[in-house]
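#onboarding

Welcome to the new folks! Below is a worked example of what a typical request in this channel looks like: someone posts a single protein sequence, and someone else replies with the predicted structure as tokens. Don't worry about understanding the tokens yet, we'll cover that in week two.

Example request:
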Amino acid sequence: MLNLMRLEMKKYHIGSYIKRAIFADFVILAVIFMLLFITKVEGDQDFRTYQTAFGLIDTFVRVVFIIFGSVLIAKFIIGEFKYKTIAVAFMYPINRKKLIASKLGIVVLFTFSAIIFSTIFITAIFSVVSSYFQLLPDVVTLSSVIQRIPAVVMNAVSASCIALIPLYFGMRKYSIPATIVSSILIAMVVSSNSGNFTLYDIIFIPITLAIIGISVAYLSFRNIEKVDI
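Example response:
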């Protein structure tokens, strides 16, 4: 399995996706600083604590990489079925289930790692810049950062599994647009903010969606041996 994953990552030049993920991190940072500037100009009191800032970081990172995960699914799986290039891979003496599982494994591990790294990276830069220029009235402490670790890990685990749900919509007609559009809708619905509250804050919802994502992944290759390309 690990060898298959390594070959797939080499085949799709995973390094280019890592660069795009880092670029996305800088975009998220720019958006957060822009929101902070706008709230200061308008005198809005909602964005005046690091807790609020960290919540925004979690939300933006989650939305971006759930969508990013669907892009990987569209490239690694849906596109191969759509253009029938998967038939070439199926000609090799490789178990079909293991092949698809390796592709999904890359998606999950990439999304999980990207969310962890991005949250740490963006939080660190935001905290340093905000502290240096005194952009927020309160002070970030080491204990407050450490307390976030379980939530960040949980966010990464659930979001990386939720990113698998668009696979269901994409595999129905091997539609790349359906894969990506469905991920956007899912990410926006669970992360839409209303009075500093999102559906994602209800622990039952991300857990349920994560289970659905895992189920979709399993069902997608359960009968893959019978699929004609």
